[in-house]
Amino acid sequence: MTTQVPGRAASSPELPALLPGMLRVEPDTEDAARRGRVRRSVRDWIVDTLCFLIAIFIGLSNFDAAMETDPPELVQLLDLGVGLLACVSLWWRRRWPVQLAIAIALVSIGIASAAGAAIVLVFTVAVHRRWQVAAVVAGVHACAGLLFYRIYPDPGLAYRWAALLTIFGVAVITLWGMLVRSRRQLVLSLRERAYQAESEAALRVERARHLERERIAREMHDVLAHRISLLSVHAGALEYRPDAPREDVATAAGVIRASAHQALQDLREIIGVLRAPSSGDDPDRPQPTLAQLPALVDESRQAGMRVTVVDELAGDGAEPPSVVARCAYRVVQEALTNVRKHARGTGVIVNLTGGPGGGLSVEVRNRMPVGSAGPVPVPEIPGTGTGLIGLAERVELAGGSLEHGITPDGDFRVRAWLPWPSVSG
Fold first, then answer.
1. SUPFAM superfamilies, per this entry (predicted)?
2. How far is CA 252 from CA 235, 249, 302, in A?
3. pLDDT digits (tens, 9 = 90+) for 377-422
């Protein structure tokens, strides 16, 4: 007798693939029986065969004891025939355990050879049905046993002792079946928890991969968008001025070559992070901080931008945490890249304020282009429109906040506030 998951055999190899929420701890096959025949496994066939043989053995033993009164031969043949049918009915005990148990209980009142089938059915109901149903079935069989000893009294045992043994035997079989049922429920519960743990572990791994992909995507956007925008500006200048002096053309070509080389180097470093196994000891690459901010501003100025940096950081040269410094660098980089894309030719002011204990404030402001003085050399550089969204997520992960939009003065402002804890003495 094996526990069945509703709608699926217990030995099905597809069970580990089920979602934890689809598992049921209740080893009740009634729903499966209503939908159709419950498929037997090899183990089920072996158990059912043993139950059939045990029922025949117990039935014949009880028949021999009951026939000591030497009833008519026709009664004996009828008893053996009905008892055999009761044992054969055990092959359907998985589909109709309660119905067969009640029917065999009524039959066993006058049929001695049905005792084995009755015992097996009491045990089956206790295993596969709730305790209330099992208790009712046990009571019916106990009453049937008491009536049986009225019809076939035991010459060597007083009726009251026969009644006590009958009640005790039915109770023991019922409790044994309930114990088996409880154990199966525990096993199914532990199995469900194991499946849930595996599913949660898989979800954690998938989430970690997703977060890593997002981190790498942000790195590629921040780094490559900056480099490619520089390439576009210098290439656009060459296209707009094909008759420029040879020295200017050579200088622009050198800047393009250097920017392309640096973009490939940055891309190689990012892909190296993607391929290399993650380690808590190895820092993410690249790792720009505020120390690289002058180089970033120089690159933008070489591309023709007018950038002014106002450094009002306090703290006597104290450096903010690496995460904060890196996030501040990305804010300035993304803002300068957006100016090259959407507001080329306007002046940019980068303002850094704050200090330990008060937080770091990064503000990038540029005048919105209204009525350009001359034709735009090249078309506007296309963008995905997700740069500021990704930047806001980066700032929030660092514990800060980001604001962006048009001010009442007509400037476009990107302002980020990042936590800068005070230096403890």
1. ATPase domain of HSP90 chaperone/DNA topoisomerase II/histidine kinase
2. 8, 5, 9
3. 444 445 555 677 778 888 888 889 999 888 888 889 999 999 988 7
Measured distance between the N- and C-terminal CA atoms of the chain, rounded to whole angstroms = 72
Give me the CATH number covering residue 405: 3.30.565.10
Lookup: tokens for 405? 């939009």
Give the closest residue to 1 by CA, choosing from 180, 219, 140, 155.
180
Encoded tokens for 396: 């929030």
How far apart are the C-alpha atoms of 17 and 245, rounded to whole Å?
70
Distance, CA of 42 to CA of 12 (rounded, Å): 12
**Residue 281 within any structural domain of the chain:** no
Range of the domain at 74: 28-156
Tens digits of per-residue pLDDT, 254-283?
777 777 777 777 676 666 655 555 544 444
Q: What is the DSSP string of 171-217?
A: HHHHHHHHHHHHHHHHHHHHHHHHHHHHHHHHHHHHHHHHHHHHHHH
User: How many CB atoms lie under 10 A from the CB of residue 230?
Assistant: 25
